[in-house]
Write a structure and sequence with these properties.
Distance between the termini: 26 Å
Number of strands: 6
Structural class: alpha/beta
Helix content: 25-40%
Number of helices: 3
Strand order of the largest sheet: 2-1-3-4-5-6
Order of helices and strands: EEHEHEHEE
Shape: globular
């Protein structure tokens, strides 16, 4: 691996989106309620986790507060679950390389985009 970190997959993506063997963390539901984006952000920030999401909120938070955490933002639009998983798995080696130097990696069906925040 290029660097050791754990990945937290937001509820809006299937957990299988991470390739097998990739270290991941899960936040349990409390009384049937999923953690809020704020709870995810605060925990990921304090633990150094990378958030994997398709939610705009995490881009907005990076813009306002800066990293950490780093974010992998899936921007594939409406795709079937298997297509999402296949696309991310195919692009994951490049995502990992780009995360070393960037705070945000966007996964699009035809490209990857990166951003650094101050």
């Amino acid at each position: 691996r290029l660097f050791m970190t754990e990945f937290l997959v937001d509820a809006n993506l299937p957990e299988q989106v991470l390739p097998p063997g990739q270290p991941k963390v899960s936040l349990p539901e409390k009384d049937g309620v999923r953690p809020t984006d704020t709870e995810i952000w605060v925990l990921a920030r304090s633990k150094g986790w990378v958030v994997v999401t398709r939610d705009t909120d995490f881009f907005d938070r990076l813009s306002l507060f800066g990293p950490p955490p780093k974010v992998v933002w899936f921007r594939g639009g409406n795709m079937k679950r298997k297509a999402i998983v296949d696309l991310v798995h195919r692009q994951w080696p490049d995502v990992m390389k780009l995360l070393k130097e960037n705070d945000l990696v966007e996964i699009h069906p035809d490209r990857l985009e990166t951003f650094k925040f101050l």
